[in-house]
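Subject: Interface between my chains keeps coming out wrong

I've been trying for a while to get a sensible model of this assembly. When I model each chain on its own everything looks fine, but I need the whole thing in one frame so I can look at the contacts. Pasting all components below, labels as-is. Any help appreciated, I'm running out of ideas.
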Amino acid sequence: MRLALRAAALLILATAPGGAAEATRPPPHFVNDIVPILTKADCNSGACHAKADVGQRGFRLSLLGFEPQEDYEHIVKEAKGRRVFPPAPEQSLLVLKAANLVPHGGGKKLDPGSEEYDALVRWISAGMPYGQPEDPVLSSLEVEPAEAPLAPGASRQLKVTARYSDGSTRDVTRRALYEANDKAMAEADEHGLVRTLDLPGNVAVMVRYSGRVTVFRAAIPLGAPVESLPPEKNFIDRHVFANLKRLGIPPSALCDDSTFLRRVSLDLAGRLPTLEETQAFLASREPDKRARLTNTLLASPDYADWFANKWTALLKNKRDAAADITANFAFHAWMRDSLLANTPYDQIVRQILASTGTIVANPPVAWYKRVKEPVQQLEDVAQLFLGVRMNCAQCHHHPFERWSQHDYYSFAAFFSQIGRKPTAVANEDLIFHKRGIAQIENKKTREPVRPAALGQPTLDIPPDEDPRLRLADWMGDPSNPFFARSLVNRYWKHFFKRGLIEPEDDIRDSNPESNPELLDALAAHFVSSGFDLKDLVRQIVQSHSYQLGSEPNEHNLADTQNFSRYYPKRLTAEVLLDSIDGVAGSKSDFADLPAGTRAVSLPDNSYNRASPFLKVFGRPEGASVCECERVQTASLAQSLHLMNAADVKTKLTAAGGRAETLSKAEMPEPKRIRELYLAAYAREPEAEEVRLAEAHLAKPRTDSTGKPLDSQQARRQGYEDLIWALVNTKEFLFNH
Amino acid sequence: MSLPALSPTRCAGPLATRRAFMQIGLTGFASLGLPGLMRLRAENALKPPGERTAVIMVWLPGGLSHVDSYDPKPDIGSEYRGPFKTIATKVPGLRFTELMPLQARIADKFTVLRSMHQTAGGHPAGTMQMFSGDPDTRDKPKPRLPDWMSVAHYLRERAGGRANPLPNYIGVPPASPEYSSPAYLGDAYAPFSVSDDPSRPNFQVPNIGLGDEAETRRLSERLALRKSLDRMERAFDREGELGALDAFEAQAATLLTNPRTRDAFDLGKEDAATRDRYGRNRWGQQLLLARRLVEAGVEIVTSSLNGPLCGRVNNWDDHAVNHHQFEALRFRMPNYDRAVAALIEDIYARGLSKRVLVVVTGEFGRTPKISFDRSTGAGNASAAAGTLQPGRDHWPRAFSNIWAGGGIRTGQVIGATDKRGEDVTERPCAPGDFLSTIYHHLGIDASKITIKDFNGRPTPLVDHGRPIPELIA
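Reply #2:
Try treating it as a single job with all components included. I did that and got this:
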């Protein structure tokens, strides 16, 4: 078997094209020629030979070839050199495996006779040269075109050029890797052919080659006539509408007052409007009533509760032990008060980052109780406040980014001088600056590195100075390319369901924003306002872009990223629970908190354990710095819970609840039904809805023994059914 | 994470099998979308397409003492040896302790793996190693990685094609819910939990078939009312969000109102002899229910054998302070033996032996050397507080689990431990191998699929390990 194989290989070698001419070509260069072949063939992907620590079947490569020297060692020298065999290069294990001529778990990766196969064989036959230090190195990567409009269903071939330090260039289209950032919008194949699908908008294709990344951006127009646009209320509308015009996506009409009232109350204050608010707002004739409502809500404690709920989960305010309660209440109260007082965002972040002392004296110190290690601190800070996911770079160069392990540990070094002194409270330290030169060991090189912010030079920080203050200075600097952009993008997503960059905390060159002018303008506005969060919210909800209806018109159903209509969002666990209480006239009860405390104002995750409702609807546990921990997708358990769970049933039948009150109220039936609709939907019922509800309420009812119920009892049950039905509709479960 | 130094061949298996396995691989998906997954299944041909394989995991929380059960060491000194004699089994040369006469009689219908080992000494970390492959040896409050059950639930749901209204992952009851979690997959992939005792005459499953007729009628009326009132524009949904919600609502309504969904949970539909054969107790009826559920099309079932049938502390954690180790086993094992033997018999007798894989395991074994300590309280299998009694402690370095069905060759013994049962001497198998084997049966190639975690990092289902060759069909 072995002999036969060898004979076959020799035969192939003898008949290979080129022959003598081949020998005169310079042999392939390991870094510039061989590694890209391995990368393109997927050999060094994380699921294959670049699997962490072990590789695959004892053969290990660095992820995506970022460490060519190690790869060279492993290919050429490890395993007693059995992977390469210059006297008969095609007999090399590396080649036999890659071509699947001996069984290979990864299957056939290279075709014998292909350009890549040929290069590998020539490289081995030349004695596996690594290359010389003076050889040219890759200096940049270019894609042509860099930008182009592409019709839906159209194709475009990209051309990728590598530029080297000696000025030479090479067409590497065949060796580059391609990936679209939204695969529902475009596909890119291995040859660099981009094909658009039927969704309009802006899509990017990431192009990678030999550790470099570049991007092709395509605008896919819908091409429908945009005849009328709502008036522009502010710069947001200017940029959103310009994009819609460019792409030919006519927006939906502006929403009515009921929709706006319910929408803005939910998005801004995390609750439904009360019956009184609804009646007053719908009755009001003031032309600026939407602006007034916005300001009222922004000034209310509900705004602070709602956003504190968002931020404390991301800042991991979680209760692992019963004794955490004081710290958690303190941290939550501090966050809420800061939002209520509208403390500038850069100040809030500075107070967390550079906090010292005890939690009781200075609540933001609690963050350091949750997040203990410098690497965790840097990863959380980068992802939460800068929108940069650094965690990949702990163990290897970030695959899609410029961040190296050096960048990673340089950032971690800001947190290297945090001193901890135990306090009387278990697990709670007093935090202080430990005098000394800030530095931390790079796990890869084992060398100490000093602090440097992302893309910034290394800092020389005197031993007496707390390096975290320097980090906070850089974060709040108006020229910081991440800080403001990350926040406005996060808030944009809060209101519009989709970030201008998705996911909202994955800002990188290879993941461009869908509307760059808008993101730039929002960030610039936020910086110039002095990082004013309430002002940002006001700008957003006062824009006509935010006030578009959610119903699609004949053109814009396919639009999911240009905000030509409001994309409906499911109510979150907390808001849904509060809203059901609001409509049913019931209360939820939470440990250690006054009766009637709303779920949005709960200080930490501990309540999820006692409330199956909150758990099943996905209230986060504060485990991750990513908003994606809050899962907003439907599940069977949720549907069963809404339909049949004991806690929901109890709310419907609560003593003194809305079903009982309405059934006893001295009002004509249509008025009672109207009240229910205003409470649940913030709108008037339609005549047909009143008729259906009346018909249901009029049904005769019997008790469990079959005896007819008296009319008030029957009506009460009818109202329970009606409330059940309303809170189970999509109109209720969604903010739209 | 690191293997003990012995590890000569890491669960590698015979060459022929290994070759065959290697040929079915497929390389390098950064992260799989649905089409990728479907393609993967098709290309790998791990299982015939369309076959809806299932797994029942019988879970022994706290860990079964391997030296007192499947890996007896009768020739060792009394500091190690328990009081139990060994008995021959249906498989020549294979001996169990006398605690399992029924399983001994059908030992040709399952395979014993004696060389399981992991590296965590605590219940949380040990369970997390077995369920998710998390190599962390320290106990932590919550799992970082999703357990295999949630992962399988998630991947099966993503693959689509299941029309059954029953939940696809049911815990009868769930296995150590405090140490398992869907983590970044989200709670939608957590088990449907059956926590009542199915041996009780009034056993009921909440949310499956409403109790009385009036309740069912009222819910039906409410559903009709909602349908007439729900006006929300369906067209706005492009991402299938409303579609998914509708599907779950329909499934929930079916579960609540359709009497046929109750049948899967109705042990009254089994004849008395069958119920007796499993044992008229909680564990027996749990495993009978598990069998009914896979027959009704549920694909992932766990059943935790815990509670009072274990003895005073409700689990298998037989430290001397908790239980008299040997009294506990005498108390506990007859019900265990009967229930597991009946389940395995049924898997073969009812034509489920290819489709359904059964695995019985705990998170670790128990210390081969007997320790003595004072009881902290009297109860079943524990003497009065203060009485010195024998116990065994946590032992992750070597333990046994058993495997049946799944089309595997049965009657085998895989691996071996040293003369005391303290360390693995042959064919060490780690949690990654354990998990890969289960995934393999479900048609999931764990070495290739990654799922993105909260940070977007493509996380492999199994970092290290491969299906145990003798345990794959």
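Reply #3:
Confirming on my end. The first strand of chain B starts at residue 54 and ends at 59.
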